[in-house]
Amino acid sequence: MRLLHTSDWHLGRAFHRVNMLGAQAEFIGHLVATVREREVDAVVVSGDVYDRAVPPLAAVELFDDALHRLAGLGVPTVMISGNHDSARRLGVGAGLIGRAGVHLRTDPAAAGTPVVLTDAFGDVAFYGLPYLEPALVKDEFGVDTAAHEAVLAAAMDRVRADLAARARGTRSVVLAHAFVAGGEPSDSERDITVGGVASVPAGVFAGVDYTALGHLHGCQTITERVRYSGSPLPYSFSESAHRKTMWLVDLGAGGEITAERVDCPVPRALARIRGTLEELLADPALARHEQAWVEATLTDAVRPADPMARLTERFPHTLSLVFAPERAPDDPGVSYARRLADRSDQEIAEDFVAHVRGAGPDAREQGVLRDAFDAVRADDMAGEVAR
Questions:
Q1: d(CA 28, CA 70)
Q2: In this structure, are residues 132 and 176 in contact, taking their beta carbons and an 8 Å threshold?
Q3: What is the pLDDT along the chain (387 residues), one digit of tens a residue?
Q4: DSSP string of 313-372, one letter each residue
C-alpha cells in the first residue's frame, strides 16, 4: 500500500506580513497531483490542518476545496487534529465526510478504533491519535499524571490491544501529533511543554509498522518507522535550511517500509543574512539572496539611519530586521529581548525570583512555578476547545 504522509498545513497562517493562502492553495493542488500521478493508495494528514482554533473564512474555504478534491480522487484520506486545531470544529460532520472517504479523527476516545483499508495483501489499520493535551485527556485514558508520555502511552495501549484482536498479518499505521525525542524543532511550533517536559520517546510507538508524525516543521526520520513529514511551507526564518517535502511511503506485504521524499512547491527561497549594513549592501556573495525573503541581522555598533529602506533597495523582499550589535552578553547595552532569547518561560520566571530576592527558587518553588505555567496552558487549551 502506497501512502502519502503530510502534516502541518497551518491553513490561514501568514509568513511575517506575507499572506500565504495562495501558496497553500498551490500546495493543495500539488498534493492532489502527486496522489494521482504517483498512484497513491491513501493520504495521511497528521494534524495542524488550520493555524488556529477559529480559522479565517478563506482558510475554511480552502480546506473545503481540499476535501472535495481528495474525495474526488477516490483515494481514502485519514486526518487528525493538531494542537493548533480546534478538535471539535475540525471534527464537525466527520461521520458524513467519512462516507466520501475522508476520515477525520479528532476524538481522543476513538484512538483505538481504526480506519481499515485493504490491499492485495490484506488489511491495514490506520489509528488516528489527535493531539492529546495531557490535562484534558488524562481522565479519559485513566492515567494519574498529566504528562505527554503517560497519555500517549495509554492511547498506544489501546491501539496495540485493538491490533492484537485483529487477523494475523494485519499491518498498522498510526497518525500522531507530538514532539518525539530526537526531533529538531524550529521557531514556528507552539510550545507544548508540560511539567518541564515537551517530548516523548519514540519507543512509545513500538509494534506499529509506520508512525506518521506531525507537529515539528522539519521533515525528519526519527527511526525507519517513525517519521515527521514537516510543514509543506516555511512559517519562520528558522526553517530557512529546510527542504519542504512529503513522505511517499510504500508499506509492503510484511510491513516492510520504503520511503521517498517528494518536494513541495515553495513560493520563494528564505535567507538569513548577517553583518553591518554596509557589508550587506556591498557583499557580492549575497547576490543569490536578492529575490529571497530575507531576515537581516545588523551588527552595527550604532543603529544606522533608514536601514529597512536601504536594505530593500537591494533585497526587495526583506521581511525581518534584527539589531544585534557585537557586544559581550553582560554589556548593559545588550537588549532585553536578546538576553531572553532561547529561554523558556520557566527559566525567565526563575531568573525574576532570583533578581527580586537575591536567591533563586528551591525545588518546591520550581514545582509551583511549573504547575502554574501548566495550568495556564491547560486553561488556554480548554478555552479553545470550548469555542
A1: 9
A2: no
A3: 999 999 999 999 999 999 999 999 999 999 999 999 999 999 999 999 999 999 999 999 999 999 999 999 999 999 999 999 999 999 999 999 999 999 999 999 999 999 999 999 999 999 999 999 999 999 999 999 899 999 999 999 999 999 999 999 999 999 999 999 999 998 888 888 776 767 899 999 999 999 999 999 999 999 999 999 999 999 999 999 999 999 999 999 999 999 999 999 999 999 999 999 999 999 999 999 999 999 999 999 999 999 999 999 999 999 999 999 976 555 555 555 556 655 767 778 877 877 677 677 887 877 777 667 666 755 665 555 555
A4: HH-TTEEEEEE--S--TT-TTS-HHHHHTT--HHHHHHHHHHHHHSS---HHHHHHHHHH
Closest of 198, 167, 80 to residue 128, by C-alpha: 80
The torsion defined by the Cα of 108, 110, 113 and 115, in degrees rounded to 10, comes to -80
Q: Bridge-partner residues for 258, per DSSP?
A: 250
What's the predicted TM-score (pTM) here? Answer: 0.86
Number of Cβ atoms within 10 Å of the Cβ of 268: 14
Cell reading at 263: 518536494
CA-to-CA distance for 205 and 173, rounded, in angstroms? 10
C-alpha cell, 20: 500565504
Closest CA to 263 of 233, 237, 293: 233
